[in-house]
Design brief:
The complex is a heterodimer of chains A (161) and B (433). With 161 residues, chain A is mainly alpha-helical. Chain A contains four helices and no strands. Chain B is 78% helix and 0% strand. Classes of the chains: A mainly alpha (161), B mainly alpha (433).
Chain lengths: 161, 433
């Protein structure tokens, strides 16, 4: 399990660094476009580049939030349960979350293949969307891995160890 | 089962899962997917969960969120809150209850760079509570005013909750931001008036603070000059039509970075901290939004929103009375749920109803966000109260809740005012280019 946790943490960390870089890039791109516009010009494709860059930001943010166990949940009821019952409920919710995101990742594979065959690209700059769809898919897989690691961590408490 | 029955079962399952602690976004995603599968088809449901999440994360309009969050987190780590509080304290501190009024003023100022109520309450609380303790303010008043003042964070723009509302209802985020300004400022004034009345009635609640010369008062503006200019640029640019909301977010984040750097308030560690906090909050919001969009598709096929709109619209009650009932539902839900999640969950139901009743979508957004704010300080969850309890661990929780009561009464008057005078919210958006 430590091996899996290590992979999840490291890949999540790399993803977060990439996402953070894209976030800074996004700020710079938009500000540069505004400044350029002030002088009568325009950076072509800012809109579509923003749409692509925010995919990387949002995808890596989802994984980082899961790593930090920061997804918004209501814990007021479960927090009053005895420890073992809490572990059982936690394992069920983690398993549901894992199953759902695995389903999203699986459904997404077919879509990526279909869009890649169509040669999906942005309208103005003709930037291929494929790498961004792939990053999204990769992030979904890491998200599942993170949830799996937390599920495995809860398991000893479920069986009373 | 009829689509409506499936929808009701879906809600019951969703609330059960949420009560068990499943993250809100995950729950909405799961129930939305299962319900859509049951009512439409397996293929359509699989197609929906493949396409909808990617559309959500690749939305230009939604890019506004991480950008404004970055602006908020940079200003947070650079210690802007202390400058804002000092400014307000120098002008108001010498009055009875003045430091509590200054706290509310600082909350309103910080709300103009922060997208969240929790951040506003926690940040201003850290600065203001020790000061009020020093001047022997009663803990109920000092903690109550920070918890209540913090709620202004989601009404005065930028506001993460208003962004979510705008995205899900396809309402102009720029106009929503503008619509939040006057009600937000008015809310701060209501709280200040509450403090004034309380301290007039019982002076020991908030003794007078130190007094400052006019020169010192004016000089305090200097320490906040850049940030006041930044707020004016972001909101003014939006209002005049210089920027889209997404561009305003980028300008805000860039400006906060440059100003903090120039004033020597930002180093690599603090910047990293701001970026990571932004990533975490961004992930939280996207997690809910992805689920909300799939859930909305499910709600649409259940036909519940339209049926409810027809049913309630046909009741022999005036629209304002129906709106009052809707607001009570929000108030009750607000006691147990996060504001953003609650709005995303209920909007598919109540938004068509509000439109059927002839209410303005911008005004409706403001009024429900306002009621959600009340939920943030109402037991049993009252999340802002828990935040303040963390900042002031020596104050018992019941003391904070006791301190909240006068502000909740002020909230009721404020909501009534917004309900009966929609122009308070709708005046500024009409001036936008």
């Amino acid at each position: 399990m430590d091996y899996l946790a290590n992979i999840a943490r490291r890949t999540g960390g790399v993803g977060t660094a990439i996402g953070a870089s894209f976030l800074i890039g996004l700020v710079l791109l938009i500000v540069a476009n505004i400044v350029y516009r002030f002088f009568g010009g325009v950076i072509a494709g800012t809109y579509e580049l923003t749409e692509l860059m925010v995919v990387v930001v949002a995808a890596s943010a989802l994984v980082y939030t899961a790593l930090e166990q920061g997804h918004v949940a209501i814990n007021i009821i479960v927090s009053r349960f005895p420890q073992r019952a809490r572990a059982i409920v936690e394992s069920i919710t983690l398993a549901i979350g894992l199953g759902l995101w695995a389903l999203v990742a699986w459904a997404n594979v077919g879509l990526i293949r279909e869009k890649a065959l169509d040669g999906e690209a942005t309208l103005l700059l003709n930037v291929p969307v494929f790498p961004f769809r792939l990053f999204w898919e990769f992030s979904l897989i890491i998200l599942c891995l993170v949830l799996l690691v937390y599920l495995l961590k809860v398991f000893p408490r479920v069986i009373g160890k | 089962m009829s689509p409506v029955t499936v929808g009701i079962v879906g809600f019951v399952v969703l609330f059960t899962l949420l009560a068990l602690g499943l993250p809100i976004g995950f729950g909405m995603l799961g129930v939305g997917f299962a319900g859509f599968w049951y009512l439409v088809s397996q293929t359509a449901a699989l197609s929906k969960i493949a396409t909808s999440p990617f559309s959500t994360v690749s939305s230009y309009d939604l890019a506004v969120l991480p950008l404004f969050l970055l602006m908020a987190h940079i200003t947070f780590v650079s210690g802007l809150s202390r400058d804002l509080y000092n400014l307000a304290a120098k002008w108001l501190g010498r009055l009875r209850g003045g430091l509590a009024m200054a706290t509310v003023g600082a909350c309103a100022g910080f709300a103009a760079v922060s997208a969240s109520s929790l951040a506003t309450a926690a940040t201003i609380g850290q600065v203001a509570l020790p000061e009020m303790k020093k001047y022997k303010y009663q803990p109920a008043l000092s903690t109550g005013c920070v918890a209540a003042g913090g709620t202004i964070g989601i009404l005065i723009p930028p506001s993460a909750v208003l962004i979510m509302y705008g995205i899900i209802t396809e309402t102009s985020i720029g106009k929503l931001f503008m619509a939040g300004v006057v009600p937000g400022v008015l809310e701060a004034l209501f709280y200040m008036a509450t403090i004034y009345i309380l301290c007039w009635w019982k002076p020991s609640l908030g003794p007078q603070g130190p007094s400052f010369s006019l020169r010192e008062k004016v000089a305090a503006f200097g320490s906040c000059g850049e940030i006041i200019a930044l707020i004016a640029l972001v909101l003014g640019g939006l209002m005049i039509g210089w920027f889209t909301p997404t561009e305003a977010g980028a300008v805000g984040a860039f400006g906060a970075f440059v100003f903090s750097l120039i004033r020597g308030r930002l180093n690599w560690q603090k910047f990293k901290q701001a970026i990571l906090a932004t990533m975490k909050t961004t992930g939280m919001v996207y997690g809910i939004l992805i689920g909300a969009f799939v859930f909305n598709y499910f709600m649409a096929v259940t036909t519940i929103p339209f049926m409810l709109a027809d049913l309630v619209g046909g009741l022999p009650l005036p629209p304002l009375a129906i709106m009052g009932l809707v607001l009570i539902v929000y108030l009750l839900l607000g006691c147990i749920m996060d504001a953003g999640a609650m709005i995303l969950l209920t909007i598919p139901i109540f938004f068509p109803l509000a439109l059927t009743l002839g209410f303005d979508p911008i005004w409706f957004g403001i009024i429900i966000v306002r009621v959600c704010e009340m939920g943030m300080i109402t037991p049993p969850i009252g999340i802002n109260v828990y935040v303040i309890a963390g900042v002031a661990p020596d104050v018992p929780m019941q003391t904070i809740f006791k301190g909240i009561i006068p502000f909740l009464i002020a909230d009721l008057f404020h909501v009534m005012l917004l309900l009966f005078v929609p122009a308070i919210a709708l005046f500024l958006p009409t001036l936008m280019s």
